[in-house]
């Protein structure tokens, strides 16, 4: 699928960009030469494309922009209230909005707790840390991220002092990623924060419905 380069002042998306009613499964993969072009990520972050199709803006920016730019765009989408149209019947948008709001509030409170160098992408490792440690491949399987991505995140967290690499006692060639004292403190703080967020949701929709929602989301995640 080809993409036409838009005018800098154009309010219309390039040819090939899906609109609000386009099925998510039909959103195209951006060619490598397009990803390398500097104009495309910048254009994807404009209000014009976000108002045309928030879903397209999010998904395509994930494929074309840096992690920092993607996180900023997602935060803007929440703040601007650009979720509209088929929100009530579009499961990806509804689930995505809940996730993004939870993520934003969680990391705001994590920063206030003294861990302001933790970023949302670090959750792929921090959320699955255990005292005895895990291999990078285990983090990749649990989080759904590629092992190379987990390796990069592990390097960042190690540099920040949250994790350390130690030899695997069952395999001298392998390494385990274990939490440091600071890492254990961050995990404990995150656990308390998540419990508080869940309590707030339970107050809004009821504890029984929250428990049912959690079970349904887990079942839905294995439906395809």
Automatic annotation (TrEMBL):
InterPro entries with a match to the protein in the record: HTH_MarR-typ, MarR/SlyA-like, Tscrpt_reg_MarR-type_CS, WH-like_DNA-bd_sf, WH_DNA-bd_sf
Protein name (database record): DNA-binding transcriptional regulator, MarR family
GO MF, any single term: DNA-binding transcription factor activity
Keyword field contains Transcription: yes
HTH marR-type domain: residues covered: 88-222
Lineage, top ranks: Bacteria, Bacillati, Actinomycetota, Actinomycetes, Micrococcales
One GO BP annotation of this record: response to stress
UniProt region (Disordered), positions on chain: 1-28
Source organism, top-level taxon: Bacteria
Residue ranges with Low complexity bias: 1-20
Pfam families the UniProt entry points to: MarR_2
Annotated PROSITE patterns: HTH_MARR_1, HTH_MARR_2
Alphabetized UniProt keyword annotations: DNA-binding, Transcription, Transcription regulation
